[in-house]
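# step 3/5: fold
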Amino acid sequence: MTSAAERPVNSGSNLMPQANIAVNNNPLQTAAGVYVTVHGHFYQPPRENPYLDAIERQPSASPFHDWNERIHHECYRPNAFARVFNDKGEILGIVNNYEYMSFNIGPTLMSWLERHDMEVYQRILEADRKSQARLNGHGNAIAQVYNHIIMPLANDRDKYTQIRWGKADFKSRFGRDPEGMWLAEAAVDYATLEALVAEGIRFIVLAPSQAQRCRLLPTENDPHPEWHEVGGGQIDPTRPYRCYLQNNHGEAEDIASSERPYIDIFFYDGPISRDMGFSDVVYSSSHFAGRVGAAIRGDRRQAQLISVATDGETFGHHKGGTEKTLAYAFIGEFAKHGWTVTNFAHYLSLNTPTWEVELKPVTAWSCAHGVDRWQDDCGCGGAPGWHLKWRRPLRDALNWLRDELIKVYEEHGRKLFIDPWQARDEYIEVIRDRQSFSPAASHDSASINRFLARHQTHKLTEAERIDALRLLEMQRHSLLMFTSCGWFFEELSRPEGTQILRYAARALELAGDVSGLQLERAFIKRLAAAPCNIEQFRDGADVYHQLVTTAQVNFKQVAAQYAITSLFNRHQAPAHQQSSSNEKRVYCYIATEYDYQIQRMGASSLAVGHVNLVSEITLESEDLVFAVLHLGGWDFHCCIQPFQGRRVYSHLKEQLFAALQQASAANTILAMVQIFGEEAFSLQSLFAEERHRIMRLLSQETLLRLDQLYTQTYRDNYGVIMAFHRDDLPVPQELQVAADIALGHRCMSLLRKLEQDIAEPTQIINDLVELKAAATEAEHLRCRLNIPEGKAILEQIVLRSLWQLLHDASSSFADDMQRFENLVDIAHQLNIGISLERSQELYFHCLYNYIIPGCNDAVANNEDTMQCQQLLKLGQKLGICVSPWLDNL
């Protein structure tokens, strides 16, 4: 957080820093002075279940759904709306940090943002556009190799696909080709540089420790300048360097020629970057600026760049609140020193390298042993007393599998694709379209049709289309299984290691579906050579059996999910099952319901149906029949079998419903076993997300009875509880809990009612009176209201009310304003941790776009400014600094 001394004292409407520019020496146009670049590497490991194309709930991320959601709340969104405060704690500015920092965001993370927070996603794209406008067409965003594989350990084809997919994903989002590319873990060798140059990448960013030696570029006057050894990290990071590709002998040709292929390299400032990650330097804007200032070279050079790089998650996730420090550094502290905030591409456009660099053979930014952290027991990332002997066998097993999958791909792919490897490189187009689909989009996508039409050797049959997509998905998963995170930490059985093995399992399954080749046994045998540190898992084979095969999903499981949840979804579909007529989306499957019948007998329900399932990814499909018996409570019995024709299906229904009429659960289950066989699915068979939802539904009746019981206990003992509080004595736990639950239940009921009545001003008044009474009662009794759902509802009510107030001007504006202020007061009084951030962002946007211009016009035209005053006071209520404009009215 910025200290009071660091905060700007001028609260003018333009919080953008004004460049300190001489008339004929604009540092944005001509290299002059000190430039600062802060690079954030934003990345999360892919976490989707390979079979469902969705992230399942991760309890360790609680209270959030998963770690992407949690880090988004702590980092990605706060950086899109970073606050700058004055001495009173009022908001002076809301800064989009992405507009000022250089950044790369992993494609898999960007896909998640696109699906889950379009507002932040659009802020990131907008930031790149604005930085282009400010910096002569050079945007802040750079690309990243697609799924964060260690490039020196990849084969040549994978290197090129990673770069091509990264470029294509970038262009589909930012609307331009990337100038630079971030390498996973900054891992590099000359073969990687060659691929980058071939694909048109102009520059990369590395750690200073990765340079071996440097010199001035050869010229006619000095064709052999002296080399300077900088292998200990001594390279000067304030300038860009040119790195020429090596010849076939592994050496750079010692000639000055414009024909020599090269890539430009920036080396970030190592000490400052380390401090950003491992000290408190980013908790203070002035301290941060001081560290940057200490790195400035005093040798009177015309221009120099101070660049730092770190994980983007540092700002807000690893170091809470530091996105605010960064925001003020960008718009205040750096400008105060006369420094120009820039990015690498812009600086390179002003400063063609005059120095040459040679790199060490194979290096990365987080391993002192080259890239051994991702293949050997080098000690990096280990825990005390734990070994890393599993790394080499894991790498060897996956390399073996990759090579076996290449054989499958080439043998079967050449029958379907004109050029199988070009088809793989361009498959990113299909992936991107799939990621950006709306939930209601058809599984038979136009992008798949266009793609296959372009690459097929002949008009493919339906079976061949499926095999073609299976092969491409097999290759996609063979790339995903090399995601670097699998080796980064101390143990194979961690979620990261398990995840890459799940990708491998999916690739194995797809290979078998196309070729009939069974590679899994040989793969598991190789995993057995990877010893684990945890007693529960002897080796990688145990991890595979316990954590990977148990997560595999087939069509029957998806049908069982559909069948069991159908008992609860006839009136309300869950978020991931959105219906269009008789179609429903179940994760990455489209379920088309052809028939569904349900009968009830006492507490039991029996549903029988016919459903067709189609994978949105491979277009595989199955026609299935299900029967699900709910015996009440948590007891479900579900059976699945292939659809065998209408007559068989009709007979099956008759048998099952006849058995149900006998009012015997045993007879009904016996009939199901006779028809479907022994295989059955229960509540435990559901995917965790849906299982938890149904568990909550099944618990509602019990919880309602408990709420009523606690409420009665609270009413009966209200005087007793008050007596304890009057005498300042601790209330007996049983009675305090009754008060907490009873008042929490009452507040939830009132909030739901308020949510429904939001468009009825008269009714809202009564709702607010009742809610305030409940909040006052809870306050007097020192209740702790544990109602996270109520918090979310209340935040949405406040936001919706504010939007109506700002956009739907009416004759009762003063009354509307009073109701809104009462709502905010009550929200705080409930003490449930309500956040007004979204409301502040909405108001701040309107403040500069509508409110201030309107106030200025009213003053200029000598009009009544009463409504202007009320609107500005509304900003005060939301904690936003509006005093300069209020004082002028």
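# step 4/5: annotate
The longest helix spans residues 688-716.
# step 5/5: archive (pending)
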